[in-house]
Each structure stands twice: as C-alpha cells, then as structure tokens.
Amino acid sequence: MGPELEYETKSGRAGPGNPTSPRRSVRKNLDFEPLSTTALILEDRPANLPAKPAEETQKHRQQYEEMVAQAKKRELKEAQKRKKQLEDRCKLEESIGTASQVWNQEILPNWSTTCTSRRVRDLWWQGIPPSVRGKVWSLAVGNDLNITHELYNICLSRAREKWRATPASSAETEINDAGSSDRESSLELIKLDISRTFPQLCIFQQGGPYHDVLHSILGAYTCYRPDVGYVQGMSFIAAVLILNLDTADAFIAFANLLNKPCQMAFFRVDHSLMLTYFSAFEVFFEENLPKLFAHFKKNNLTPDIYLIDWIFTLYSKSLPLDLACRVWDVFCRDSEEFLFRTALGLLRLYQDVLTCMDFIHMAQFLTRLPDFLPADQLFQQIAAVHMTSRNRKWPQVLQALQKDPERGSPVLKR
Amino acid sequence: MQNNHHKEHLYKILVIGDLGVGKTSIIKRYVHHNFSPNYRATIGVDFALKVLNWDQETVRLQLWDIAGQERFGNMTRVYYREAMGAFIVFDVTRPASLEAVAKWKEDLDSKLTLANGKNVATVLLANKCDQGRDVLTNNGIKMEQFCQENGFVGWYETSAKENINIDEAANCLVKHIIASEKDLLQSEVPDTITPQLENDKGGTCSSCFRSQ
C-alpha cells in the first residue's frame, strides 16, 4: 500500500479540525491497533505543504521503528502467553484423564479397601474427575436408608398423584384452599423454586431438559419424608446431584445426604441444634482467625448470617459450580466438618478485605461472594485451617456444646 | 460530612413476605436499577444498602431481604431486631400471598416494637402489578381499609419488572420512619440515648441517634 494513499484515508478520518496533527492521529491509532501502523510516519507531506525537514523525518523514522519494535514485543509476549495457556490446559486435561483412569481402574473396583488409603485421600483432595464424580459421591454418601430404584418410583408416582389432584393453575389452587394450612404446601413451593435454581444454566427452568427431573426428585422426597417436606435449599442440592448422577441414583444420594445429622438439623430447622453448630463453628473461628473473629463480634456479625446459605445449599449457590463440586468432593470424604472448614477457608481467604468493612458490607460480601474465586487459593486456605481446639476435634467440640447448650452463642438466643 | 450539621441517618429496613413474591427483585430494582427474571431463591437473608439524599441529609437504608419460607420463621425472626421500618410484599397473581400478609404483619408487630411501644412503619407492596391480574387490588377502598385494619402506613401497586412505584413506596416508608424517629426522640429525656427495642446495647441501627 502506498504511503500517499494511506495518508489520504488517514487525513480524511482525522477531519478538518485537526489538520496539523498527523502524528497525533497516528498515535491515537496506535493505541487501538498497533499492527496497522504501516509507515504512516514515513510518508511525505502532501505537495501543497512545505516538505518535512530532514531531522524531523529522521525523528519520525526512529519513533516509528520504536513503535514497531514494541508492537512486535507485545505480540510475542501474547503468543507465549497463549502457548502457555494451551499447555496448561493440555496438562490439566491429561491429568484429569490419568486421574479418571486411576479412579476407574484402581480405586473404584476395590472401594472398601482403597477409600481410606492415604493415596486415595490425597487424590480425593485434588478434586474428583467429573466423569467419576457421581459414582464416588454415591459410594461415599452411601445408602444407609436402603432406598431402591423401586422405592423411588413408588414415591414418584405418589407425588404425581398429588400433582394431578391439584389443578394446574396455581392461582386457583390457592383460592380453593385459601385456608392457611396449605400455605406451605410443599408441591407448590417446589414449583416456585425450581425456576430459581441455577437460573443462569437455563436447564432447570420450565421447558429446560432437567426441569422435570428436578421436579420429580423433590416431589418424590416430600412423599418419602412428609415430615421434612420441601425446604428451600433442597432444590440446589438436588440439582447438583442431577448434574452428576442418573435420576434414581440422584434421589438415593439426595435422601441419604439429607439424612446426615448436620443436614437433618438444618432442613428440619431444629433451631437449637443449628445454634449448637454455629457455636462450634465459632470455637474454630476464634481459634483460627482471632482478629477477624473479634472484628465480626464488634460489628455484631453472627455466623448464621452467612452460614445458613452456605450450609443449606452446600455452597452450590454461593460458589462457582465447579468449585462447589470440589467442596462436595471433600465433604463426601470428611463429612459435615468440611463444610465448616470451608467456611473458615473462605474467611481466611478474604480476611484482609473483610477487616476493612463494616457490618453491612461484610454481610453483603459474604452473602454474595466474588464471581471469580480462585479455586487453588481457596483450597490452600482451607488446608491451612486447623480443625483442633484445645486438643479437641470437631465432633468433640460439637458434642460438648450439645451437652451444654448454655455455652452456645448468646447473641442468637432469644 | 463536610459540615458538622450534616446529619446521617442509618435505618434498618426489613423486606418480608411469602416465597417468590419478588422481594429480591424489588430490592435489585430499587438499589441497582435493573431487573432480571432469573433471581436465585434467597436462603436465609441477603443484604443491600441504599443511600438517599433527604432534605440535605444523608439517609442510609440497610435492606434485609429475608427468605420467605414460613419454616425459616424461627431462624430469621432474630433479624427483625432494631429495624425501623418494613415492606411486606405480596404477589397480586397469587391470592394466598395476600392472605399471608396479615400473618406477616402480626408476626412482625409481635416481635418488634419501638421504644415507645409503637409498631414500626410498614408499607404494603402489591407486586407484579404488570401482570394484569390485579383483581385483588382493583378495589382501592377495600385495600385502604385493609391497610388501616392491619396498621400499614400505606400501600403501593408495584412492579420490579416495569419499575412502577418502587421509589414512591420507599420514599413513603422513609418519610414515616423519620416521623416516627422524631416522635421517639420527643418522648425521651433529651440527653439520654436509648435505642429502641428490648435489646439493651446499641446496635448498628442506632447510629442515626449517635450522629445528632
């Protein structure tokens, strides 16, 4: 491309208000598209203007060469960065591939003997490959309740009968039983909550591929455990299981998971037991992060404010989904203790920012964690949390508090 | 802050009502000026902060967005403490959520009173009025009567989606909160500062007294 031609277009773009600043327009241009600065500076002035002095020409040439050199450097750097990213991704994919092989061929076939070994525990901490995640979760959660696929189908058909018995239009239903007893009708609540479960994934919403599955599992559970019914938070747990397991297996894992002591305490909203859990958490909070603990105390920020959401949804609402799954991995290995350890890891990760905040900003921050949460850093922080307090581990601390509830958090008591 | 006479008020406001009536959407619209049909269900409590200029004074509203499932009532009622005002929200397309309003109000009044024994200012929001099924509220006289009987200082048909009446409702609430605060201060010995409620130590919300 001839320099004159380039200049023509350039000066045309620069407009009449800017006749003496080809350099400036070149610079401006450079900021946006460094690769297109072809020889703009080397061109001669149009014939109707006095020619450039030699030294100015020289200066422009030099400047131009510097620009080109810089642009090349930048380009090279970016190419290297891209290459590194690609390598990292390949490495990651390869390690996931190897890991799934190890899980599939060595660990899973001999689960009862391998699951407690040091090596497996270490691999487990690093995250279970998505392809075997569901299997490992199922095995680790177990099936103490002895739920079979048949039982699931029975519960599901009961739920379906109930759905059929209530008219489709929710408004009419509610006019009919406007009385209060049905205000908490689980089936009604499930309908309202399903569309608000991982809305950004667009798969559980009306018409989405997993809408009916989620509906079925939650409905079947309310028939399996009418005494518990549907409680908010459940839809998130069921959804994460659905993403990793077939429907009936997801139901089995769901029911067994909710049957764990901590989950039962929360989903039955056993207030005093929940307070005991919060108090136990505070024991380890104070032990691990005394300064932040004092800061929270001073600001009246009680643990229920952030823990309720984290525990009820097992972090699936507050953490990015892949990270939440990694927390679930180790939760399946270490049980409830790991949920509270994760909370401490999060507080540890953000203690510097939190220390500078007042009540409302901390509460906002913790109930809406940053979107980009570095997984490796979080797990490093979790690993650094000590789950011992005066030689007692989590179960002992919890047990002691259960025996002596008066030592519970006074702030939350009324 | 530039001059010493500049007052700052901090008010804690509760947003309560049945599950899925649009509490979070109303808050998002009010504070962040946007709407999405895809909010996640609130578990426990969420927070937002809104700063207003009010007659050359600064008003900070601490909004407590409380999960609507009745089951959580035991757990979330501690959050009522020290609130100075409340919105109770229902969904005009779901009659049951209006039925529940009286219960929410009763629950609120039984757990929260100002130092002078009065109830906190509460505004009723008939949300989702854009959905055209407002048979519930088209009888204005009846709604007025309902508000009087249940002790609401006012009611608004709102739409978080279409941004209808949200600011108006909030201004109404703030106006009543400021009035009830003045009322409170007058009924007290001038130089003792007693935060409202049975709680005997000053909490976050009484900072508005402190700054005066």
In short:
The complex is a heterodimer of chains A (414) and B (212). Chain A has 414 residues and is an all-alpha fold.
Verbal overview:
The complex is a heterodimer of chains A (414) and B (212). Chain A has 414 residues and is mainly alpha-helical. Helix content of chain A is 66%, strand content 1%. In chain A, strands 1-2 form a two-stranded antiparallel sheet. In chain A, helix 9 (186-194) runs antiparallel to helix 10 (211-224) and helix 10 (211-224) packs across helix 12 (247-258). Chain A starts with a helix and ends in an 11-residue tail after the last helix. In chain B, strands 2-3-1-4-5-6 form a 6-stranded mixed β-sheet, with helices on both faces. Chain B is globular and about 45 Å long. Classes of the chains: A mainly alpha (414), B alpha/beta (212). Chain A: GO terms for molecular function: GTPase activator activity; small GTPase binding. Chain A: It comes from Pleuronectes platessa. Chain A: It holds the Pfam family RabGAP-TBC. Chain A: Keywords: Coiled coil.
Task: Offer a few descriptive terms.
heterodimer, A: 414 residues, mainly alpha, two-stranded antiparallel ribbon, 22 helices, disordered N terminus, B: 212 residues, alpha/beta, six-stranded mixed beta sheet, 6 helices, 32% helix, globular, disordered C terminus
Secondary structure layout:
The complex is a heterodimer of chains A (414) and B (212).
Chain A: H1 3-14, H2 22-32, H3 54-107, H4 111-114, H5 118-125, H6 130-141, H7 149-165, H8 170-176, H9 186-194, H10 211-224, H11 234-244, H12 247-258, H13 261-267, H14 271-288, H15 290-298, H16 304-312, H17 321-334, H18 337-349, H19 351-355, H20 359-367, H21 375-383, E1 388-389, E2 392-393, H22 394-403
Antiparallel strand pairs in A: 1-2
Chain B: E1 8-17, H1 23-32, E2 45-54, E3 57-66, H2 73-76, E4 85-91, H3 95-111, E5 121-127, H4 140-150, E6 154-157, H5 166-186, H6 207-210
